[in-house]
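Write out this protein's structure.
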Amino acid sequence: MIRIEGLVKRYGTAEALKGLSFDVPKGQVVGFLGPNGAGKSTTMRILAGSLTPTAGRALVGGLDVATESVAARRLIGYLPENNPLYEDLMVLDSLRFVAEARQVDKRRRRDRIAAAVERCGLTQVLGKDISQLSKGYRQRVGLAQAIVHDPSVLILDEPTTGLDPNQIVEIRELIRELGREKTVILSTHILSEVQSTCSRVLIIADGRLVADDSPERLTASGGEGTLHAVVASRDGQRLDAGTVTSAFKAVPGVTGVESVASDEADTLGFVLRFGAEDPRRALFDCAVKQGLVLLELRRTQVSLEDTFRKLTGQSAQRKVA
């Protein structure tokens, strides 16, 4: 549904996008991440047809948003970061205005407005001026305006900015629900939001794509697995950390062992690294042979925040160099 091909955007001598390319298939919810100034909003504005690229193409449903702008925009619902709303209008009037501007068929207009109102939970505020609404309800109005014409693609730029935790959860649930039937590209700085809502993550830095994978793979320690183990002696004998470390290092698949502090008396803690082969069964067998009891053996992951900082930090270092 979305295809970006070699996208370049220059503002004078500054280059915001540097040959950016990616595809998003139908029905996928994609988190679009990057530090401030990475080119996220520029990309989304180009996709929405409100900004022209310097070079390259952006296509939605096979339509070039620059040369087939009107047809492409019919497929798109766009919620920009600043969520511009006519504050003097009542909620219902604003939705009627947008539906008309979006050329929703008159025979379907009432049904489409009703569907957007129900989906976004606006029934209680239809008669209120937008200026009277909370930030959370304003975001709901913005989302309702974005979906009133039943688009195939939703482009959401920082949809939860400025919301309190309860409002964030509400908007997140709404986005997740919309993602069941539409292609969604979501830009946000709240990484937990991406992990709970998106099936795929794109990370850009300095105008270039630096990562494209699922949230699970991006938090898999950069391709290396990590295990946390806590052991105790089966017969109550005092444990020697060096002996256990050597035994664990000899287990097939283990690439590194580090002794760490344990919270329980008479126990030892270890962090074990491994590659493609999962060593947990072999570690259990090793513990039995060594007369150890495995009190804990769990796989750990890096956070998406750590992965984000690592990838975007590397890009910044290359830029400085």
